[in-house]
Task: inverse folding
């Protein structure tokens, strides 16, 4: 049976993991390669590396980092942050990334999704959507929720699929950082209308939150950062918990 | 050991190379028939679209050459589909090593493509799953599949049972991405190299 995926997200700044971690058993918890390999060994189904600085100077650092990760990690991994062109994607895939995630560049120029899907195949193009509920409607936002766009989240999700996105990474800015659970209602609405997988992100605080996002939220994958980094939840324990509750898991 | 990875216009082979690096295997990425012919093992990877890939292989005459190889050949994902008889993807005639046709998943309830970790089950003779359990999880990304038939060496279930692996004479094929399928994938590649 196809399993639901659990995905830790590592935020990268100048080649280092930021936001901190609580892995006393790692030599260097700030080393994304070591942390990624640790997760791969300990139940993660996939990894996402998000370059939060994403400046041109850091591009080369990121490509080098991707090479290091690809040498060490034997599960799929995605790289995102500041990707805006075919050249960017080509460099990251050639360095060993399995997928890339694009966000504000797709909002600025939606045709980029079509171009990337045609050039590299839909399977490696994830479109990340940051969403915030404003005046009764879910709107796409950029810049970590600071900038509202004229795009309605539900419409935009349909559009990115039609343009060739292979998966959608949906982050609710309403729930992100709250640890009060994922945005299940919106996730379910988008997932029900999509034929591509939806990775839900933002709000995970407990194991039950993951159960809810896979059942109520109809998500195909659940992504989180700090609860994994600070070992509030261990991935293997989470997967065992979900499997016992009947969610298909790779154990 | 001398491994040739067939170079053509399908896909991102970096992951395959890194998987071989992790095992410590040496390889050459080439479309030179002489180099491929001389290799102990041949890997035919790929991510892409069938008709574009076949057009390229025909132009390079690799479509005639690959089926004549005598050493162990491992084909993955689109590589596996190209070794079958025909693909429904843009109505493409393929190489016909495996006597089976590729069709598209059809479902009103399940998402297409089939993306993620799914379990495979060994069936009949399967030299690449030696040392693994009867059932193991591997990583898939595909919309087209080979039905289960006589050369199916592992099955998977999505929409309906389909061929996760094929094995016939010196040809071995996997629909999933062994190169990013964790320890299981690594073992499958190791088993291929140990043949």
Result:
């Amino acid at each position: 049976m196809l399993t639901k995926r659990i995905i830790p997200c590592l935020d990268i700044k100048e080649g280092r993991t930021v936001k901190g971690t609580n892995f006393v058993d790692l030599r260097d918890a700030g080393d994304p390669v070591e942390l990624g390999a640790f997760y791969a060994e300990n139940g993660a189904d996939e990894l996402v590396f998000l370059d939060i600085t994403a400046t041109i100077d850091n591009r080369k650092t990121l490509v080098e980092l991707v090479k290091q990760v690809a040498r060490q990690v034997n599960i799929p991994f995605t790289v995102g942050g500041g990707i805006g062109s075919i050249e960017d994607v080509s460099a990251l895939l050639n360095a060993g990334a399995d997928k890339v995630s694009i966000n504000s560049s797709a909002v600025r120029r939606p045709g980029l999704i079509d171009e990337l899907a045609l050039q590299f195949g839909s399977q490696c193009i994830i479109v990340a959507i940051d969403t915030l509920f404003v005046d009764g409607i879910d709107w796409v936002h950029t810049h970590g929720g600071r900038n509202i766009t004229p795009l309605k989240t539900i419409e935009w999700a349909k559009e990115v699929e039609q343009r060739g996105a292979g998966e959608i990474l949906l982050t609710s800015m309403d729930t992100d950082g709250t640890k009060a659970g994922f945005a299940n209602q919106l996730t379910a609405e988008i997932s029900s209308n999509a034929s591509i997988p939806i990775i839900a992100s933002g709000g995970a605080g407990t194991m039950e939150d993951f159960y809810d996002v896979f059942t109520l939220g109809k998500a195909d994958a659940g992504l989180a950062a700090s609860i994994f980094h600070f070992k509030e939840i261990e991935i293997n324990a989470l997967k065992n918990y979900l499997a016992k509750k009947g969610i298909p898991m790779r154990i | 050991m001398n491994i040739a990875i067939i170079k053509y216009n399908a896909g991102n082979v970096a992951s395959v190379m890194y998987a071989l690096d992790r095992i410590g295997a040496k390889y050459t990425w080439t479309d030179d028939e002489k180099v491929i012919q001389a290799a102990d093992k041949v890997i035919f990877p790929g991510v892409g679209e069938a008709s574009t890939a076949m057009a390229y292989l025909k132009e390079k005459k690799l479509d005639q050459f690959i089926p004549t190889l005598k050493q162990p050949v491992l084909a993955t994902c689109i590589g596996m589909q190209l070794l079958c008889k025909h693909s429904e993807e843009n109505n493409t005639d393929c190489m016909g090593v495996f006597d089976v046709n590729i069709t598209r998943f059809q479902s009103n309830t399940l998402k297409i493509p089939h993306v993620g970790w799914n379990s495979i089950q060994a069936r009949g003779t399967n030299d690449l799953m030696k040392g693994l359990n009867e059932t193991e999880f591997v990583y898939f990304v595909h919309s087209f599949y080979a039905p289960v038939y006589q050369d199916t060496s592992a099955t998977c279930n999505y929409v309906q049972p389909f061929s996760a692996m094929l094995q016939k004479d010196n040809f071995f094929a996997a629909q999933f991405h062994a190169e990013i399928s964790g320890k299981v994938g690594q073992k499958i590649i190791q088993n291929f190299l140990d043949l």
Observations:
- The longest helix of chain B spans residues 182-194.
